[in-house]
Specification:
Blueprint lengths: L1 H28 L8 H22 L10 H16 L5 H7 L1 H17 L2 H12 L5 H52 E3 L2 H12 L3 E9 L7 E8 L5 E2 H12 L3 E3 L6 E2 L4 E7 L3 E10 L9 E7 L3 E8 L5 H19 L4 H15 L8 E7 L4 E7 L4 E4 L4 E4 L15 E6 L5 E5 L1 H5 L6 H10 L6 H14 L9 E10 L1
Amino acid sequence: MQMWMIAMLAVSALLIVRDMAKLIFTDRTKGKPVYDAYPQKEKIERYARSFQRLAHTFYELPNYQKQLSQMEVQEIFSQVQKSVCRDCPQREYCWGEMEHRTSQKIFEMLQVIEDGDQDRILRAQGDWIGECRQAVKFMEALQKGFFESREELLYRNRLIENRLAVAEQLNEVARLVQKLAGDVSDICTVPTAMEEKIKKQFQKQHVLVKQVWMLSKSDEKWRIFLTMRTRGGQCMTMKEVARQLSQVCGCRMVPSRESRAVLNSDMKTVLFTEDVNYKVLYGVARVTKERESVSGDNYACASTDDQFVMCLSDGMGSGVEACRESETVVELLEQFVTSGFSRETAARMVNSALVLQRKDGMFSSVDVCSLDLYSGICEFVKAGAATTFIRRSNWVETITSTSMAAGLVQQLDFEKTSKKLYDGDYLVMVTDGVLDALPVKQEEETMKEIILHAQEEMPRELGRYILEKVLSYSNYCAQDDMTVLVAGMWKK
């Protein structure tokens, strides 16, 4: 079910992006101003509304039911009455003049059965023997009817959770498509004078620039598309192309990470963006739980044109099953975030996927840090994750979470916060096995002391130092999987 849903959503998104690109580039070649091409924006918005309507149909279906309804309880009464009381000589007495008292007693017994306390169940059965000639048979039938109804209720609730998970994913896709519609109207032509200047600059380098346009964003950073090729069978590196463009723009430009390394005689469209202000280095230190061969912790780090993303997940327990669970989380998170989804949207879709494929008792923590390489703003999204630490110049700040882990419930509230990072700051992400090894009720304070007094500057060495210090508190015996993920940020 999970893989089918992800495949369906991926195909839908690809078709939408294909249509968007086709509409944009078709209108552009006809000489129309890109920002006036509202029909394609409206078409993409119709896609979004279609997904939203489909999601709402799932949301409007019956809601989650916490306990048996009065009608279902009455049905249990009727079934037991038919199977046990039908041939009983006291039937007319129990279900006639004493019906109210009988129903009240049975309802009380159902409550005892629901609580599951065996001592109370036996006492209730003993009390019922004095009331009913077939007390043992009646109690067995009542318990059987209750457990069957409860199993049916759990099954219905599971279907409802799956339906909500599908609705959540459809809704998130609708939001993404709506964002794409906004991006369509953000694409505009550059001023004529600038376009001519760019073409002349590249003409000197034997490069034919056919089209120039830009993507306008609120951050006012340069994002320029060039459709171009070299002349005379020559080649030029994209870095050199970016250097030539930088001279025209007056700021350092770099090619998109997805662009090819060399420009040749084939006509290509390449995105160039204003270079970021910060660079990031990261390192990891980890140890597997004693007597386990595989760690249940997994992590991923990825860079896009303007952000650096760190994902850390701790699967429930340890070993192979925990590893598979957390591996699924980080792989999906990395894929969604680097594809343009917001951090919270990515986390919600991963949670939906886990709910769809959830086995009993299987869940994982979600810990995402997304660092804007222009501004230094770091956004955190957490669900059931351990505390994250930020080492400043002479103090340590903490980011905590109290929410449940992903995969437990569909309507999960992720904890979000953002912090400004400065030149030389470090991010330290850990799994709960690290903090659990420290003195009880002093975990965070002890970790802050360890981080603050570390002399290591390279993230990998800092991570190793932290892990070694933590292990010293447990006689170097890992009682759980431990992972320390460290990233340092510096000005370029």
